[in-house]
Each structure stands twice: as structure tokens, then as C-alpha cells.
Design goal:
Blueprint lengths: L8 E4 L6 H31 L6 H18 L2 H9 L4 E3 H34 L4 H4 L2 H27 L8 E2 L6 H7 L5 H32 L5 H29 L9 H22 L2 H19 L1
Parallel strand pairs: 1-3
Antiparallel strand pairs: 1-2
Helix pairs in contact: 1-2, 1-3, 1-10, 1-11, 2-4, 2-10, 4-6, 4-8, 4-9, 6-8, 8-9, 9-10
Length: 309
């Protein structure tokens, strides 16, 4: 490892340098982050305490909401703190920790979305075998495998980051630490490392996206044989899934599958999938899902009833 100790900290330029714009950034993203945490925690609590939401679909949705909360927390608090501080300094170790958490929970989100698609595929295309294939033990094993896969992916990112020597400029033109901005500051030819990055993150994003899209095409094709009522319910769930997948994977593929060049829109694209998508997920899954809404209302009524006694 040739980590050069001459650079022990970095300065994040953030989304804006102008003090007035920084205040606007703080207000807007405070709302987004609060909404993300509240919305996702509401889903987590509802699924945890509602007996009606015991199916595998909600088991996976629980972990999607957990991933969303942690994924957003890996970048948003730092972005908010920096928007109010004059010097946006982040230490080398903090920077690497942020790279690790960002990729750990980002990969977990990808794997959970794949598992949710697999669950819908089995439910719609193999309904009679669904209770056997997607039984509780299988779901737990799949989630454990997803966590292990996410850890392996994050450790691979950290190994790539540790190979980078830093000896000169320490200004990161971003609001968070990620490998692309760090590659620009490294005192070495980063072509091979960027290739490894694309092979790692890029392949996970792209292959997962195509796998998901293919599964949705197969599911939609098989819906022709279902009753009108069954088709309507399945389409409602699928629309939510497809919307979330496109919103998350579009920016992800844009950032991780290209040569080491930066574009002015990079930061806004990154904001969209690190803060925007985790904020939208609870809205998409609750507003379009009658079962989740009913379970929330039921829990709320039980809480009010217990408090009024």
C-alpha cells in the first residue's frame, strides 16, 4: 500500500461555495433528510409490528427501508454540517469510512431490490410453489447473503482507495468522499484503478439493472394469464418496483460505468441517488400500497387507544 501521509485530510467543496446558496442547500436537504428518516422508520416500525405484513415482500421492504436510512445517513449529515461550516475538512480516515458506508448500504439497496424482484417473479409466475420457495428460512439466508455481498463490495472499494497515494492538492470537488473524486487527486496514473472500479461498481449496477428489467418483462408477459383483479394488483406493485429501480439505477450507472472524467452534473446526479431516491422510496411504496397504508392506520389507532386509557 502506498498511502502517502503528506495528505492527512481533505477539503470537500460541497454543492455551493456562496454563503447564501449554502443556507438554501442546508434548508432543502434538511427537509429531504428528515423526510427520508421519518418515512423509512415509519415503514420499518409498521412492518415490524403489523401482523398483516408478514409476507416475504414486506420482509424485503423492511431491509430496503433500513438500507435507505443508512445509505442517506452516510452522506446527508456531513452535507448538512458542511453547508453551515466555513471550512469543510474531512480527515483521511473519515473519508475512507464514508466510502465504505456509502458502498455498503448502496450495494445492500441493489441486492434487496434484486431480491424483491425475485420475490415478485416467484409470486406471479410460480404461485403454487411460492410458499415453499420463499419460506422464512430462505428469505433470511438471502438477506444474509446480500449483507455478505455488500461487505465484500465495500472492502474491495477500500482496498482500491488504499492504493492511492496523495501528495498534492486535497480539494475534493464533491459533497462526499467517493472513489471517483479521490482518483482525480491521486499522484499516480489511475487508469487501472478506474478500470477496477468500473469492473466492481459498474458491473454490479449494470448487471443488476438488466437482470431486474428482464425479470419485469417476464413477469409482465406472464400476467396475461391472470384474472383482471390479480393483474391490477400485481401491476400496481410492479409499477412501484420499476419506478424505484429506474430512479436508483439510472444515476448509479451514469456515475460508475464510464472513464475517469467528471461532468458538471455529477454532483447533482449523486445527490439524486444518495438523498433523493431514499426520500422517494417510502412515498412510492406507501402511497401505492393499500396494505401498508391500512397497517399504518391500524397501528396508529391502537397507539391512540392505548394512550387514551
Amino acid at each position: 500500500m502506498h498511502q502517502n501521509k503528506s495528505v492527512t485530510e481533505f477539503i470537500l467543496l460541497g454543492l455551493a461555495q456562496d454563503p447564501m446558496k449554502q443556507k438554501i442547500v442546508f434548508i432543502i436537504f434538511s427537509i429531504f433528510y428528515t423526510g427520508t428518516v421519518v418515512g423509512n422508520l415509519l415503514i420499518i416500525v409498521t412492518i415490524k409490528f403489523s401482523r398483516s405484513l408478514g409476507s416475504p415482500m414486506y420482509f424485503f421492504l423492511f431491509y430496503l427501508s433500513l438500507s435507505d436510512t443508512c445509505f442517506s445517513t452516510s452522506t446527508a449529515p456531513r452535507l448538512l454540517a458542511d453547508a453551515l461550516s466555513a471550512k469543510k475538512v474531512i480527515s483521511y480516515n473519515e473519508c475512507l469510512t464514508q466510502v465504505f458506508t456509502l458502498h455498503l448500504f448502496g450495494a445492500m439497496e441493489i441486492f434487496v431490490l434484486v431480491l424483491m424482484a425475485a420475490d415478485r417473479y416467484v409470486a406471479i409466475c410460480k404461485p403454487l410453489r411460492y410458499p415453499v420457495i420463499m419460506r422464512r428460512q430462505v428469505c433470511i439466508i438471502l438477506i444474509v447473503v446480500a449483507w455478505i455481498g455488500s461487505c465484500v463490495h465495500s472492502i474491495a472499494q477500500i482496498i482500491l482507495a488504499l492504493k492511492l497515494p496523495f501528495c498534492g492538492p486535497n480539494l475534493i470537488d464533491h459533497y462526499c468522499c467517493d472513489l471517483q473524486p479521490l482518483l482525480k487527486l491521486a499522484c499516480m496514473d489511475t487508469y487501472v484503478i478506474n478500470l477496477q472500479l468500473v469492473t466492481n461498481s459498474g458491473v454490479i449496477c449494470t448487471s443488476s439493472f438488466f437482470l431486474l428489467m428482464m425479470s419485469y418483462i417476464v413477469i409482465l408477459h406472464s400476467l396475461r394469464n391472470h384474472s383482471a383483479e390479480g393483474r391490477k394488483k400485481a401491476l400496481s406493485t410492479l409499477t412501484s418496483h420499476i419506478t424505484v429501480v429506474i430512479l436508483f439505477f439510472g444515476p448509479c450507472i451514469f456515475i460508475y460505468t464510464r472513464p475517469p472524467t467528471t461532468f458538471p452534473v455529477d454532483k447533482m446526479v449523486a445527490v439524486f441517488y444518495t438523498i433523493g431516491t431514499p426520500f422517494l422510496n417510502p412515498l412510492i411504496y406507501t402511497l401505492r400500497n393499500a396494505e401498508v397504508k391500512n397497517a399504518m392506520k391500524k397501528l396508529w389507532r391502537i397507539k391512540i387507544a392505548s394512550e387514551s386509557k
